[in-house]
Design the sequence.
């Protein structure tokens, strides 16, 4: 049984290294959006290249995050966590030194692999290291500090882009890793799951990531309408079908199909796909809209986004407690509708937009909707499966959210009619943005309708989340299996 106490020096070192590791991956999911216009200018990149700068990271992270957790359980959580930190730092260095957009995109894909190794490992280390009496408090501190990191991410990104330059958005990870990895090796005990057995589902992970990559490519390049794009899209669909086939026939699949026998689990994941697709498209385009059209500096644009994550950080735990009393159906119905209203309010943000009257109201409504929505979403995922599979269910839900976001970043500019150079023209980008926000709002309304029709109150005594405070806008918080 784990016996490290939170108040001990070792306990504090464990908390520090897990916060540092998870914060690297979490920050890179939010700060890069603010840097995109400057990246495009410096590297003479098209809109498609900017989409890939975001999505290359998300493809490998979403496709491999379940495998990353399994590797830690089998070979040692500390070992895989440190490997992920070092890998992430090396890929970040390559991102910061990239001379072309193509190299940057490849480095971002490598970053996602590192993120898939360290993200589930940071929470698993806490679960496996701390005494049961201190575990919930340690998880709460870990998620709270991670929420602070997510909240300041856009501001930090804007400050770096405005000051030393966009490359420091990536280079900053290197000294953090140089601090994090030695602390982990010295102070974090190694742990593994003795129950882990069977072969790793490497084929399933590869097919999942490949299908996401091919479909993303087809959506981003669909403006050309070439035969190669059509063939790529068909290959992506074929890879998705092959992934489902492999998962149904493997003895130890990465994504066990029988977990979807729970109607509640299936329903809440459909809601997740809708809401995080809208969120992914919203934050990608809003960071560009504020700079390209409204004329904000990167620092001003990053600061402008703070209210949404700050509200989540301050009130997410209270929202979860309220949902425990009302049941998840009401917040999962109302939350997406508030977020949809926020996206329609963003239609007021154009050239010379005033922050207090045009931007802030939309972001406050957006934050309120996410506060109401995200904590009950996580709780419902955990409550819809057996306690022994709670960590798996959370990982699937987290991967689904990331996959939805990357598909939205690929598809939304196409649906809104953005040309390859749209972000260089304030007029063209503003017109496309005004077409994109109602699309995002419509997807959120669909998510709300699904929640109202399909989500029910879970049975009493089911698993409750330990990560009650969070501020990540790209995916719901992860939950790990609790050791015995």
Sequence:
């Amino acid at each position: 049984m784990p016996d490290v106490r939170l108040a001990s020096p070792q306990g504090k070192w464990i908390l520090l290294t897990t916060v540092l590791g998870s914060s690297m991956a979490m920050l890179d999911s939010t700060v890069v959006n603010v840097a995109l216009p400057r990246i495009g200018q410096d590297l003479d990149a098209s809109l498609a290249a900017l989409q890939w700068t975001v999505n290359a990271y998300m493809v490998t992270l979403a496709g491999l995050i379940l495998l990353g957790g399994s590797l830690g359980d089998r070979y040692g959580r500390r070992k895989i966590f440190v490997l992920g930190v070092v890998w992430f730092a090396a890929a970040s260095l390559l991102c910061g030194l990239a001379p072309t957009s193509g190299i940057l995109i490849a480095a971002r894909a490598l970053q996602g692999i590192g993120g898939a190794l360290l993200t589930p490992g940071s929470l698993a280390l806490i679960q496996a290291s701390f005494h049961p009496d201190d575990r919930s408090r340690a998880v709460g501190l870990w998620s709270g500090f991670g929420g602070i990191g997510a909240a300041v991410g856009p501001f930090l990104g804007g400050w770096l882009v405005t000051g030393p330059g966009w490359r420091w958005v990536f280079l900053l990870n290197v000294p953090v890793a140089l601090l994090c990895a030695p602390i982990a090796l010295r102070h974090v005990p190694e742990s593994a799951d003795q129950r882990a057995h069977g072969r790793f589902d490497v084929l399933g992970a590869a097919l999942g990531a490949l299908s996401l990559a091919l479909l993303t490519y087809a959506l981003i390049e669909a403006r050309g309408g070439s035969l190669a794009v059509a063939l790529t899209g068909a290959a992506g669909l074929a890879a998705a079908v092959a992934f489902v086939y492999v998962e149904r026939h493997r003895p130890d699949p990465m994504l066990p199909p029988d977990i979807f026998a729970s109607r509640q689990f299936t329903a809440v994941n459909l809601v997740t796909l809708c809401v995080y697709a809208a969120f992914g498209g919203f934050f990608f385009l809003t960071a560009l809209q504020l700079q390209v059209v409204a004329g904000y500096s990167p620092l001003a644009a990053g600061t402008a986004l703070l209210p949404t994550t700050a509200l989540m950080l301050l009130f997410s735990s209270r929202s979860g407690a309220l949902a425990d009393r009302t049941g998840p159906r009401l917040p999962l119905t109302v939350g997406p509708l508030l977020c949809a209203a926020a996206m329609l309010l963003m239609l007021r943000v154009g050239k010379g937009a005033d922050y207090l009257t045009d931007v802030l109201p939309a972001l406050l409504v957006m934050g309120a909707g996410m506060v109401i929505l995200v904590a009950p979403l996580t709780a419902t995922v955990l409550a819809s499966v057996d306690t022994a599979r709670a960590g798996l269910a959370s990982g699937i839900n987290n991967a689904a959210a990331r996959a939805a976001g990357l598909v939205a970043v690929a598809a939304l500019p196409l649906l809104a009619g953005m040309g390859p150079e749209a972000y260089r023209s304030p007029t063209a980008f503003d017109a496309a943005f005004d077409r994109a926000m109602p699309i995002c709002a419509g997807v959120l309304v669909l998510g709300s309708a699904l929640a109202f029709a399909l989500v029910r109150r879970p049975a009493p005594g089911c698993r409750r989340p330990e990560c009650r405070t969070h501020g990540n806008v790209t995916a719901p918080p992860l939950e790990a299996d609790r050791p015995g």
User: Anything to note?
Assistant: Residues 335 and 369 are 4 Å apart (CA to CA).
